[in-house]
Amino acid sequence: MTQLQTQTAEIVKIGLQAPSFNLPSTLNMETLEENVTLESYRGKWLMLFFWPYDFTYVCPTEIIAFSDHAASFRDLDCEIVGVSVDSVYTHRAWTQTPRDQQGIGSIDYPLASDFKKETARAYGVLDEASGAAHRGLFIIDPEGIVRYQVVTDMNVGRSVEETLRILQALQAGGLCPVNWKPGEKTLG
């Protein structure tokens, strides 16, 4: 691991303020001129996740699955923002391409462009060698504090159900034992 990779991996820490971001997004699909910022999600939970590249194989499975469950996240007062190093123009093209033609179709949350790779670097998920983001997922509380993070290999997709369970455990406010599920007692 290079010194730069070591430094960036230590920037995001559980219990500390999440790195700020201001990224072009697909919030306004027509103009692509509406950015997403960490500050615009204050007062809500935020699930921020990164993927390597658009028009690939594992990425659409996650993006579509999170979109299919976006209402479940919103029911928990949590918004979703997806980020890759591709441009917003590529994001728009991907959403306008039918799923049976390697597209993702309409998505129920904004896709943000980290074209300059500053946000992926700040969150410690940028693979400096390839220029792509690893699959990083961060749950940020309403005050902007990082409460959960997981980074996986580029070849391994994340679980929507586990992400929802973790969000609910964080919101439960107690000590949640292994395999805790909503409605079960906490340890304290």
TrEMBL record:
<dbReference type="Pfam" id="PF10417">
    <property type="entry name" value="1-cysPrx_C"/>
</dbReference>
<keyword id="KW-0560">Oxidoreductase</keyword>
<dbReference type="GO" id="GO:0033554">
    <property type="term" value="P:cellular response to stress"/>
</dbReference>
<dbReference type="InterPro" id="IPR050217">
    <property type="entry name" value="Peroxiredoxin"/>
</dbReference>
<dbReference type="InterPro" id="IPR013766">
    <property type="entry name" value="Thioredoxin_domain"/>
</dbReference>
<keyword id="KW-0049">Antioxidant</keyword>
<keyword id="KW-0575">Peroxidase</keyword>
<dbReference type="InterPro" id="IPR019479">
    <property type="entry name" value="Peroxiredoxin_C"/>
</dbReference>
<dbReference type="InterPro" id="IPR036249">
    <property type="entry name" value="Thioredoxin-like_sf"/>
</dbReference>
<dbReference type="GO" id="GO:0005829">
    <property type="term" value="C:cytosol"/>
</dbReference>
<protein>
    <recommendedName>
        <fullName>Alkyl hydroperoxide reductase C</fullName>
        <ecNumber>1.11.1.26</ecNumber>
    </recommendedName>
</protein>
<comment type="similarity">
    <text>Belongs to the peroxiredoxin family. AhpC/Prx1 subfamily.</text>
</comment>
<dbReference type="Pfam" id="PF00578">
    <property type="entry name" value="AhpC-TSA"/>
</dbReference>
<feature type="active site" description="Cysteine sulfenic acid (-SOH) intermediate; for peroxidase activity">
    <location>
        <position position="59"/>
    </location>
</feature>
<comment type="subunit">
    <text>Homodimer; disulfide-linked, upon oxidation. 5 homodimers assemble to form a ring-like decamer.</text>
</comment>
<dbReference type="InterPro" id="IPR024706">
    <property type="entry name" value="Peroxiredoxin_AhpC-typ"/>
</dbReference>
<dbReference type="GO" id="GO:0006979">
    <property type="term" value="P:response to oxidative stress"/>
</dbReference>
<dbReference type="GO" id="GO:0102039">
    <property type="term" value="F:NADH-dependent peroxiredoxin activity"/>
</dbReference>
<keyword id="KW-0676">Redox-active center</keyword>
<dbReference type="GO" id="GO:0008379">
    <property type="term" value="F:thioredoxin peroxidase activity"/>
</dbReference>
<dbReference type="GO" id="GO:0042744">
    <property type="term" value="P:hydrogen peroxide catabolic process"/>
</dbReference>
<dbReference type="GO" id="GO:0045454">
    <property type="term" value="P:cell redox homeostasis"/>
</dbReference>
<dbReference type="InterPro" id="IPR000866">
    <property type="entry name" value="AhpC/TSA"/>
</dbReference>
<keyword id="KW-1015">Disulfide bond</keyword>
<feature type="domain" description="Thioredoxin">
    <location>
        <begin position="12"/>
        <end position="172"/>
    </location>
</feature>
<keyword id="KW-0963">Cytoplasm</keyword>
